[in-house]
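Extended Data, record aldehyde dehydrogenase (NAD(+))
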Amino acid sequence: MDFLASLKIQANNAGVSTGKAWINTTGTPIQSHSPVDGKLIGTVQPADRAGYEAVITKAEEAFLAWRQWPAPKRGEVVRQIGEALRQYKEPLGKLVSYEMGKSLQEGYGEVQEMIDICDFAVGLSRQLHGFTMHSERPAHRMYEQWHPLGIVGIISAFNFPVAVWSWNTMLGWVCGNVCVWKPSEKTPLCAVACQHIIAEVFAKNNVPEGVSGLIIGNRDAGEWMAADGRIPLVSATGSTRMGKAVGAAVGARLGKALLELGGNNAIIISKDADLDIALRGAIFGAVGTAGQRCTTTRRLIIHESVYDTVKNKLVSAYKQLSIGDPLDEKNHVGPLIDTDAVRLYSQSIEACKKEGGTFIVEGGVLEGKGYESGCYVKPCIAEAQPGYAIVQHETFAPILYLLKYKTLEEAIAIQNGVPQGLSSSIMTLNLREAEQFLSYAGSDCGIANVNIGTSGAEIGGAFGGEKETGGGRESGSDAWKAYMRRQTNTINYSTQLPLAQGIKFDL
């Protein structure tokens, strides 16, 4: 395919890079099969311990030089990366779609997110400011400033194979850090392509080798990174189970972990909702990326007075969904990432039925022409109860649970009554309901929306959630502070040494 060649993707690819050199390693190659058609796209030679050490050593050396570059100069490099991504948007978007299985529109959209965060980071490079404070001592000045941490380790998930890396990396770079990326082994070629694009820009600007490190590997590579005291910050995106392991390993060495983990997101549909908007937001949230977003809508909490109306409209709308090759823009739903995901989807449907759930739109695995990969499934809808174990669980698949409520307080309690706390939404034209949902007594999630769905977060806001979602924040707002260390400074420009709190210490 032409887009593979333009991104320098070959049949066999090295998976370990210092940003300039590709390192030969040993180990069983990782094969990347497309969930779209089951075909082998390419293989990647994974990291071994020697390759990992080479990348980390080079990153340590690069940090000493990179941190000396003025932040606006680092921002200029990131600006050029944004321009390169504009140039490669079409082939990279197609690769994202083909290797991961999301729709072509979403593949392009993911690359656009990378471009947007580059723009954000360029502006940020001139705004890494601290504060000044008044000292209680005469002729003293106090202020705080922010310094880079060093190596930022990034562990990313398959569902956003490039965007989440860029959220961390572009901010990390303008803050003066160097970055080492361990992408998902399920989407390794997207990472290889990004490393090639970055290398072109870095070479033109004489960026030190090691500022952009790549370590493709299985679980071992992530464990090396989490336990490595040379990496002060590890940013990990993925399942709650993975995040707990990373958090424990990083915490044991008193490092910093930025965790963006699972979501079990809900939309409350009020009796005062605009149902056209509510249905559009709910359907896209539930079936977009075949239900494989951390912000996917998994629960609809519907007021009893409009419950039947919403249910019937959903059933009608689901009949119109087109499932198939995501590179065909006529299709709404592509495949799951692999057959393991299909197995978990099927198990979740059976678990819901055993607990008493009733499926008003039946699920199932699709077979036949166009579905040869075995990764295509039917988006389905079940009427359920909030207390079902399966409803409390995040299944990375297009399964939507309908729940009924009487009062807004009950709806908010249902919304909050799960272990995860990422994204949430209420559909209502009632100002009081909207404000209550956004208040301290409302949603307990990191993201709370009114009259838009749970997915589709903009890069300008900090992204992340609470509880088992991990508490981390990436992307916009002041999320940049996670990638830096704060330092408080006091300058005495007097001829005396007055002590704080009026303490006397005479010699």
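Summary. The first strand starts at residue 12 and ends at 14.
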